[in-house]
Structure prediction request, 173 residues.
Amino acid sequence: MGTQVISGLAYYCGDYVNTDVMSPGRFEPYTGPDQLSSVALIDYESDIPFVDPKIGRSPYTVIFAGKEFGCGSSRETAPQALYYAGARVVIARSFANIFFRNCINMGLLLPLRSEHGFDESVIGKPVEVDLFNRKVECSGKVLHFPDFGPLADIVAAGGLTNYNKQRRQRKEI
Prediction:
């Protein structure tokens, strides 16, 4: 994640949002980023769609979610679909482990764990994620998140591949 502040509009997803809802298998094989973007969260039941069907992209940069976001399969196209649609951060009460690691390793989405307390009313509200100060501001509420511990270097490098390339350049591996 190259920038220190990520800002945009918030979206909300409830508990147990499955990766098959994020990038449904019925659209495979995927033809590329535009198709993945257009189907991101297409099967999520909400009065407000995540992706604007007219443009195939999402106006939402930050997703607030409930428990076990990314459960189900280990479908790596799930974080890709969300990213290509326009999301940059997912703030969930908890994540499925494989989805969390796919986000970290791919360097596309920043997964933050937080008991945020938001619901559907947050959709469309401005949100700011300050990576340097590790805080999120939305609807007058400030959330703080811990650093990524041993994963911090992978996050800072923009994913596992970049991290390993940097280590190789420094002759650490």
Observations:
- DSSP finds six helices and seven strands in the chain.
